[in-house]
Write a structure and sequence with these properties.
The complex is a heterodimer of chains A (160) and B (198).
Chain A: E1 4-6, E2 11-15, E3 20-26, E4 30-36, E5 41-47, H1 52-55, H2 64-78, E6 86-91, H3 107-121, E7 125-131, E8 137-142, E9 147-151, E10 157-159
Parallel strand pairs in A: 1-3, 6-7
Antiparallel strand pairs in A: 2-5, 3-8, 4-5, 4-6, 8-9, 9-10
Chain B: H1 5-30, E1 34-36, E2 40-45, H2 49-53, E3 59-69, E4 73-79, H3 81-91, H4 104-129, E5 133-135, E6 139-144, H5 145-153, E7 162-172, E8 176-184, H6 188-194
Antiparallel strand pairs in B: 1-7, 2-7, 3-4, 3-5, 3-6, 4-8, 7-8
Classes of the chains: A alpha+beta (160), B alpha+beta (198).
Amino acid sequence: MNKTIVVGMADYKVGKPPAKLMTAGLGSCIGVCIYDLQAQIGGMAHIMLPSSKESMKGNPAKYADTCIEMMLEELLNLGVLRSRLKAKMAGGAQMFSFAGKTPLLRIGERNAEAVAQELKKVGISLLASDVGGTFGRTINFDIKTGNLHIRTINHGEKVI
Amino acid sequence: MEISAIRIEALKEIGNIGAGHAATSLSKMLQTRIEMTVPKVWLVPLPRLPEALGQLEATKVALYLKVEGEAPGKAMFVLSVKSAQLITKTLLWKSELPDIINDQMAQSALREVGNILVSSFVIALSEFSRIRLQPSIPALGIDMIGAMIDAVLLDEGKLDDNILIIDTKLSGLEEMEGMFLYIPGEGSIDKLLGVFGI
């Protein structure tokens, strides 16, 4: 059975093999996977904004800080060992640019920084990341192997 | 955010007027008949966006314009690659479908289409609401629709849990089909609907 768990925008899911986790069409959002290879448990979050501190409103799963906290707690409940946790992330692109204007907010870049910072804060090492650029990504995470497969439309595919 | 039934109806009417003007402009530009659906007004929770937009990883061509002024919003015209090729082929009098990923001229023509569509929409909105609105220059993207939508939604660095979308489909030129989306900004609905007294 090859089950794929789909993670929607501003959402996170955890699972065990043979299930795989996937999120489609990441633009300036970040897809972050946190997993314990030995326990064979992993989670993926689709994060939209850097910080809940600026405008904490609504669903906490859309912010880097609150979403990582929530997912971490769920993973710990499932029996992961905190010291064994690793992370990988992808996304954080700048999809649109208006001729002659530099984007003021650089949300993609800030999202990537915020996720990296939050992971550091909770003591999870970020093994690999594929962030930035001007293109969208669809990601698939294999909880069994810890491989994160990244697909794009005009910028190839890769596994990190 | 909650929206009363009467407001939904009024928003549909706004979509109807605006998209009607946009469809007329597109029709003049392409010298062909353009069909338009009755606008849908969606109030979609973020995780359910695919239900409104379809496959998030599908490759689409999107034109994105910000609408600035007293009631700001965002407008997007989303096309399949084939539809964008059909439009540019017609506009540029080409004998074959252009390669829109590499053809600068075709991309420029598409931007112009975005410009004209959104300008007509905005002018219609301004005229009946008496609110001054101004479209930005167009940005063009050819990528996964989900990625382009999230970038548009996050453009201001904040995001509601539910997204209000006014969605109208335009079709013509045999197989050309496009989705015209208008996403009113926070507080803009009150201003736009103020003219109806609701």
